[in-house]
Amino acid sequence: MIKFFYNNNNILSICFTLYILLVSITTCYTASTTGDKLIENENFKELIQPIQLIYPDKDHQRLLINETSMNILNSLIDYDLSILGVVGTFHSGKSFLLNQLLDTTDRFTVGPTVHPETMGIWVWASKVRYAGKLHNLLLLDTEGFYSSNVSETYDAKIFAITTLLSSHLIYNSVKIIDQSALEYLELLSRRTQLFALKSQMKSESLQSQKKQQSTITDIKATDHIDSLLQILQFPSLTWVVQDFFQDIGGITATQWLHNLLKAHSRDSDSNLSIGEIFPSIECHTLFIPSGDRDTLRYLNRAKMSDLNPTYIRELNQLKHSLFNSLKPKLSGPAFGTLLRLLVDVANGNKFPTVPSIWSGFIKQQQQNALEDSITGYKEKISLFKTVDPPFNQDQFLELEKNSFNYANELYKQLLFGLEEAYNPGLITLHTLLKELFVLFSKENQNRIKTFNQKIYQDSFLDFQKKVEGIEIPISSKQLLSLLDSFKFESILQYKKGTDLFKLSESFDYFMGMLENDMVRVSASKQNQNTKELELLLTKAVAVVCEKYKSDMAQIKYPIPIAELKIKHKELFKESEQTFKKIASISSQENSYYAYHAMFEKNISELHDKVFGHNEMAIREKCKQETNRCVYDFKKSASQILLPVEEDYLQKNLEQYKAKSIQLFKNSLVIFDNSDAYKEEFINLQVKLEQQIDLKNKENVEQMKLIVMEYLNTVKVMMKSRYSSYWFQYSFENEAHQEADKRISQKIQSKSLRDKVIKQFIETDLKDEMNSLFKLSTLIITLSIGVLIILVISLYSRSS
């Protein structure tokens, strides 16, 4: 296990006391203003802002309750709260994760520095509607494990209290789940099991006291305890691995975790695995929230749009799993009662620890001989306190043997001839000497432990300096090789310095400490190196994409698609070479291929934009050419003096059309495989046909003017025959025949003649036909109506 050693000097104590005072004042102020600043929308209502509920004392050992926060929490008497707690190492993203679960980034404090932000336990109560279901949710944000100047027992207290309070527990970690993480969770869980048993015993004690007390206050205070035996159970567990980008094959994250637990259970000597401690265990992985360094440093300022889409998708999957599994557990007052019990047990020396082997030494009054013998023994054996390095166990036992013999002989000489005093006193002397032996043996072991500790610290500091001196980024393999080399050197340094004490208990203890600390520092350096490598890869992607974009911008558009494809191929090859050159250090990393794929994707997107831009430029050029060809056609067509015979006109117009089309093709032949070219070619044909139609209509108009004198005689004649026509068709047919007779000698083309007559009827006879056939239609309609009435009347009479 990892432990941290520190000096409790006066300055540190004063600073920590001031910090706790400041936190308490801030929490009280926040609690007093909660009603003014609560957030609310249709799916979210904040019941209590984030407040500090538990904080450590100045020595970071005992847990203290913020009574102001407790009073606010007790006000939630009407709410059955689903309690979601999160635990894990410090700066692993616990506070940010809780913020994200409720679609915010700034309620729980998220810090950009290497120092922990969350102290003790913070709570946040809200009503949340998710997928149509309303949850009264109480979030527990906790102080992270392994922070400096904090003991393992303190971390275990935070874990145990949070676990037993929660209806669902999140265990948060970063990057990967390894053997040490499983072992640490198992250790915390087993200690929590023992702690729960202690708490039940405390609860039973309170119940017994309740029967002997009669005040109303005391009865109310213990009424809640009746149900504690039922709720001191382990919650469901969700293990969340943040910043995860490993490949776990075709299995789910939960299956992956259960496989690890099975392997761990096989390797463990214990019959009880983590999977049997928690009622259910799931695992969810979250990708890196962002590839931007500043965004990662200040996640409390990030917007959802700043976050990685993969991260958001996996976060939504986590939210779906959590909200579908949440169950109400306690009301506010019941939560407070349980919390007081757990804190009381944790602070009352009831938290499970290894019992001390230190036994008290009881001094008894002895005869002068007994006192002198004991004094002589102490003077002889005290030599072990002055030597440096200390005596090892064999040397100490030899010294103790000589000291014991000296005390025995002295006692015998002092009581020579006094057998009645000698024999009973000898038993007492041996008892006291045995006790002193245990005491001095322990003291010598402590001196050995202190010596081993100093060698451990020196070895670890040397290792730490060497690791800090490694310039990153470098390849992971190279870094691992250096770290293994430094580890070997530090372990050799420790073994050499403590060779006399390799059989002592503290030798193995500090060897384990050294190995664990080196693993921790190595992991931190590897994480830093991984981040630097990822930054390098991100930079490589940005550089090559910007270069590709810049080179493509130098092209004068439009250009033929084939040429653009060749240019793209050249630039892509050049970009890939540049990417490999910049990212050469990370070419063997697992993340290299992901960033290489990102580079290809970004280049592909830029390629699509460039080709789209070129297509637009081709389209614009084609439009300009279309307008020019239409203009040339109109100019050529205008040279035909109208009216002319239709065949002659049509022949010339078709020639002009063919000429314009050929001109379009010749001008744009290099773009003939473009979609824009094909579309605009069709548009040109349509426009030319429209111009031909206009020219034909103009020719008809001009021809009509020539024969208008003859057509007017037809108009006069048709007016005189109004009364002869009941249907418009008959009228139009008669007019057409009369007109054809009169102009057949003037217009030879039958087709042109028909068009002239048709236009004459539709325009010049329009008013006459409208006035005539509207009236006739009305008369016919009325006649039909009258006829129907007569038929109905006759039918009625016959019936």
Automatic annotation (TrEMBL):
<keyword id="KW-0378">Hydrolase</keyword>
<feature type="transmembrane region" description="Helical">
    <location>
        <begin position="775"/>
        <end position="795"/>
    </location>
</feature>
<keyword id="KW-0812">Transmembrane</keyword>
<keyword id="KW-0342">GTP-binding</keyword>
<comment type="similarity">
    <text>Belongs to the TRAFAC class dynamin-like GTPase superfamily. GB1/RHD3 GTPase family.</text>
</comment>
<dbReference type="InterPro" id="IPR027417">
    <property type="entry name" value="P-loop_NTPase"/>
</dbReference>
<dbReference type="GO" id="GO:0003924">
    <property type="term" value="F:GTPase activity"/>
</dbReference>
<feature type="domain" description="GB1/RHD3-type G">
    <location>
        <begin position="78"/>
        <end position="253"/>
    </location>
</feature>
<keyword id="KW-1133">Transmembrane helix</keyword>
<dbReference type="GO" id="GO:0005525">
    <property type="term" value="F:GTP binding"/>
</dbReference>
<keyword id="KW-0472">Membrane</keyword>
<dbReference type="InterPro" id="IPR030386">
    <property type="entry name" value="G_GB1_RHD3_dom"/>
</dbReference>
<dbReference type="InterPro" id="IPR036543">
    <property type="entry name" value="Guanylate-bd_C_sf"/>
</dbReference>
<dbReference type="Pfam" id="PF02263">
    <property type="entry name" value="GBP"/>
</dbReference>
<keyword id="KW-0547">Nucleotide-binding</keyword>
<protein>
    <recommendedName>
        <fullName>GB1/RHD3-type G domain-containing protein</fullName>
    </recommendedName>
</protein>
<dbReference type="InterPro" id="IPR015894">
    <property type="entry name" value="Guanylate-bd_N"/>
</dbReference>
